[in-house]
């Protein structure tokens, strides 16, 4: 059975990554795109060889699409997901799922009640590098994990700045844009959940409207592991990386916090250093393959709706910690609390 996809949002990320990922699946087809601007939808459809375009959400959901990919601004995800679930469409939604974890839970529950698959587009857990790190930890190659460090400070390209640095009401700011990814990647690689977080945010001159364009966090995980993260929109010359340090060794990954299947992972133990091999499959193609398997009832999305609730709850707690100067308890089923 061919899975017919409709794009909700004529976005850059869909053009750069998702359209090709869908088309790379033997049972995947992009049949429609919707934008609040009918003119933009039409131009986008022509540029990307999509047969149909809509300027209205109901029109798209009333068509024969089987699944939707939502990549609109964050404040629109809730309403669009609820409408898609009501229409019986499977949903793959960009992160963060919503502006609050309470709304994100509503989305997950609506899709569950409607019997449709819901996934969160946390692309980094689809990277071969992170999967190799996860496997090394599971195999005991670094002993018991003690600490982790994620550095994901980059420079936000001018063509992506827009609402991310000017519109708090749309869910702008570096925490909802990047820290959510760190949170999900840490959970995935470690197989562990954070319980508390402290954070400090920064406004270094790019973001406006009271939004943050830099943040550092410190987290405690249920196993006792501690982790730190650094995220930024304003750092031009730093590479990205991910380190995990255990009782018997360390994993040192470089240039892996990216949308491309690149970077390196080194295992460091008393025996010396070993560069780990890993597959270089396109992250989004892997995500789509697993999502299609979930539609067939053979698997679940690589990042489920519940995973999206978790990452948003962690981001919420980070923002609350920065605002109050307190360490915040993280619970995806409850409001983050001091």
UniProtKB/TrEMBL annotation:
<dbReference type="Pfam" id="PF01408">
    <property type="entry name" value="GFO_IDH_MocA"/>
</dbReference>
<feature type="domain" description="GFO/IDH/MocA-like oxidoreductase">
    <location>
        <begin position="130"/>
        <end position="251"/>
    </location>
</feature>
<dbReference type="Pfam" id="PF22725">
    <property type="entry name" value="GFO_IDH_MocA_C3"/>
</dbReference>
<dbReference type="InterPro" id="IPR055170">
    <property type="entry name" value="GFO_IDH_MocA-like_dom"/>
</dbReference>
<protein>
    <submittedName>
        <fullName>Gfo/Idh/MocA family oxidoreductase</fullName>
    </submittedName>
</protein>
<keyword id="KW-0560">Oxidoreductase</keyword>
<feature type="domain" description="Gfo/Idh/MocA-like oxidoreductase N-terminal">
    <location>
        <begin position="4"/>
        <end position="122"/>
    </location>
</feature>
<dbReference type="InterPro" id="IPR036291">
    <property type="entry name" value="NAD(P)-bd_dom_sf"/>
</dbReference>
<dbReference type="InterPro" id="IPR000683">
    <property type="entry name" value="Gfo/Idh/MocA-like_OxRdtase_N"/>
</dbReference>
<dbReference type="InterPro" id="IPR050463">
    <property type="entry name" value="Gfo/Idh/MocA_oxidrdct_glycsds"/>
</dbReference>
């Amino acid at each position: 059975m061919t899975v017919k996809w409709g794009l909700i949002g004529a976005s850059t990320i869909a053009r750069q990554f998702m359209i090709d990922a869908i088309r790379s699946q033997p049972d995947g087809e992009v049949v429609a795109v919707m934008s609040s601007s009918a003119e933009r939808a039409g131009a986008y459809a022509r540029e990307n060889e999509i047969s149909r375009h809509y300027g209205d959400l109901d029109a798209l959901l009333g068509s024969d699409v089987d699944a939707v990919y939502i990549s609109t601004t964050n404040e629109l995800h809730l309403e669009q997901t609820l409408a898609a679930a009501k229409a019986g469409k499977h949903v793959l939604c960009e992160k963060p799922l919503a502006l609050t974890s309470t709304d994100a839970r509503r989305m997950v529950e609506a899709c569950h009640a409607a019997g449709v698959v819901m996934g969160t587009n946390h692309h980094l857990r689809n990277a071969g590098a992170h999967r190799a790190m996860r496997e090394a930890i599971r195999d005991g190659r670094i002993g018991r994990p003690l600490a982790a460090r994620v550095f994901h400070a980059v420079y936000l390209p001018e063509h992506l700045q827009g609402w991310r640095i000017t519109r708090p009401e749309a869910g702008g700011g570096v925490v909802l844009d990047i820290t959510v990814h760190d949170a999900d990647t840490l959970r995935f690689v470690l197989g562990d959940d954070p319980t508390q977080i402290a954070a400090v945010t920064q406004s270094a001159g790019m973001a406006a409207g009271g939004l943050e364009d830099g943040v550092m966090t410190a987290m405690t995980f249920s196993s006792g592991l501690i982790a730190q993260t650094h995220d930024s929109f304003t750092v031009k010359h730093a590479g990205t990386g991910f380190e995990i340090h255990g009782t018997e060794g360390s994993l040192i990954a470089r240039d892996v916090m990216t949308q491309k299947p690149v970077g390196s992972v080194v295992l460091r133990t008393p025996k010396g250093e070993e560069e780990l091999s890993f597959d270089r499959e396109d992250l989004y193609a892997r995500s789509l393959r697993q999502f299609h398997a979930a539609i067939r009832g053979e698997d679940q999305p690589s990042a489920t709706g519940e995973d999206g609730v978790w990452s948003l709850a962690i981001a919420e707690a980070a923002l609350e910690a920065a605002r109050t100067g307190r360490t915040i308890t993280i619970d995806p089923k409850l409001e983050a609390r001091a």
